[in-house]
Amino acid sequence: MKRLTAVLAASTALAAPALADDDRIVVGFATAESGFMQGYDKPAQDAAMIRIQEINEAGGLLGKQIEVVNADTKTDRAEGAKAGLSVIDAGADMVVVSCDYDFGAPAALAAESAGLVSFFLCAESIKAGIQGVGPNSFSASVLAAVQGATMAQWAYEKKGARSFYRLEDTWTEYNKGICDGFDWMMPKLAEATLVGEDSFLNEDASIAAQITRIKALPEEPDAIMLCTMMPGGVSAIKQLRAAGITSMILNGSGMDGSYWMSAVPDLSNFFVPVQGSVFGDDPNPDVNAFNVKYKEVTGTDPATQYTYPGYVMIDVWAKAVERAGTTEASAVVAELEKMVDEPTLFGPRTFTPELHHQNKARYLIVETTGGKPAVVDEWTISEPIPVADLMK
Amino acid sequence: MAQRSILARTIATPLILSALLLAVALAAWGLGSRPFNQTVIDLFLQVIFVVGLSIFVGNSGVISFGHIAFACLGGYVAAWTTIRPVMKAAAMPGLPDWLMGMEIPFWAAAIAGALWAALWAGLFGAILMRLSGIAASIATFAMLAMVNAIYSNWTSVTAATSSVVGIPIVRTIWPYLIAAVIAVFIAWAYAISRHGLALRAARDEPTAAAASGVNIPRARFIAFVLSGAVMGMGGTLYAHSIGLVTPDTFYLGLTFTTLSMLVVGGMGSLSGAVLGVLILSALIQALRWLEAGVQIGTSTFALPGGVQEIGLGVVMILILMFRPAGIMGNSELSLPRLRGGQKNPGRTGPND
After folding, report:
1. For residue range A47-72, what is the model confidence (pLDDT) as tens digits?
2. Complex prediction ipTM
3. Cis amide leading into B85 (omega within 30)
4. Nearest residue of A to residue B26 by CA position?
5. Residue range A165-197, pLDDT digits in tens
6. Nearest chain A Cα distance for residue B9, angstroms
7. Model-level pTM?
8. Are the CB atoms for A303 and A332 separated by under 8 Å?
9. SS3 state of residue B61
10. C-alpha neighbours within 13 Å on the C-beta side of residue A296
11. What residue spans of chain B are helical by DSSP H?
12. Is A101 touching B (CB cutoff 8 A)?
């Protein structure tokens, strides 16, 4: 018993509470430094670090330098909760969590219950925010549904597509989100018809059955809305083209990047929406300058557009902190919610008390011709997707 | 025959194990570090899972790959009964009205989770417990796959593969400690009961046990239901520890973590189950700290990322090389005494 008391006394002495130090501003990254989520988190986090460095070089935020603390979620939900608590204990004023809702939520919930602002690096589900975490949670990316809606409307207006075929990979929420946006947009396109729909699973080795049904149509559809992502998406595209289907293929941003295109040689008539171009041809020269800077810092070009939301995240948060004059959560959230079409390097951003996510956004359209992707246009959907439709 | 009762002879084991767990809890409470607190909560949950698993695996000798399915059943009970009705209606619209309106505290949910898992353990067990050896193991694996497939696809009731959020988060350590201690005492009480004894007899000498009147399927069935209940309780508490559930949390990853902790600790021993968790968790934690980097003098020493997983594997191989029956083998922690002979001999010993 004496020993127990001694242990207790010793451990209480060690328990100095981690008090927030007023002289510093701390951003806590509870993100994946190992496991498969690292592939998504790392580029966005590097981009966030670039913005933090820019702010620090320009004199800091509220006159203070931004410091960074990290904790690894190991791409594991239980570890995610611990990582969130670690950065909070280390004095984080804002907690950055993993790209994906499922893997980021435990850390975001920890931040929420500690009364801190949390940002998902690039989650595209409506749950990444008020709906799935709470009133202090935000996402730095754009809803998946906006991507589907953008592609449908753009193809209809700019490419004259009238007959659409919907091919959904039911593997993830993200895929379903793209097709939900497409479904929401279709009735608004007066002459558009849905000539057929089908589904497959990302892991399916063959989609021959689905292709047979497309081939059985009286005529080839103008456009195929393909709601899928890596890695199965590549195989699906390859099979569609190998079967001689030449329709436009519309996708979500998940198929951005050229790293996989050697698997489908000479791919053409293939379209993705992106927040910024990684191919060096962004209409905004500042984006191209950012790409150069990113290469200087990390040694490689950004692989996909999912690098960019990390930069946007620090940008909008720092602006809100500057306007609020404090890092205190309720004041920062109030400032963020006042943002309407706030300009950022990667398009305007809007947050409202109902939605801490983008239900309307400017997208660049990247067309791949002969295996070479290039920006061909930009498009913003005519009206935001209502929150009620997103919650379905 | 002045032998003391089996209760008096064995009570030291659960008491020592509970004291160990209490010491860990007090250390976490004293340190006051939130991530460490969460680590210890995780450790207690793993104790519940591994002890739950050992009630069946340890006593019957049948390796079960399916027990995490009961944790899944328990986890979703937390989602069904503790989330605010408004949020529940949005995520899981297919729930019956009486369940939709229900909002109970976490401890009641843990009891409900245990009962729900026990119910299904009973239904599955009635069929599966007639099998033996590898056939039984594979059948339990099939059960895991089945439960996972149902929970991953029944959109209106389990929200399919989406995370179900809104489960109240319990971050104090004491409920988890109490649950882990309860699990230890259940496992101990079962092991010294006549059913536990009969099942171990059937494990070591099935023919002789059957000839002595042990109904082997029935003995296994009791252990299966009891261990299912403990797993269900653990699953519910797991959901409350991070605030959300998904079906893939309760699948292969957790199955193999818990099984390897049990094997490393010693399959035939309750102390082995608890120590397996404590030792492996301590090792994982130490390697993570080293990965994150420690300050030695002026230089920081850090292992490259991923060493934790490799180091854990190497240590497990070493332990099993030198102690094939696990750290504890078939013996239990007990107070030292002057006259030997209380310890259980090796696995082949029939006088267990």
Report:
1. 999 999 999 999 999 999 999 999 99
2. 0.77
3. no
4. A8
5. 999 998 888 898 999 999 999 999 999 999 999
6. 24
7. 0.84
8. no
9. coil
10. 8
11. 6-10, 12-31, 34-60, 68-82, 85-91, 97-100, 106-128, 133-153, 155-158, 174-192, 194-204, 206-211, 216-242, 252-265, 270-292, 307-322
12. yes
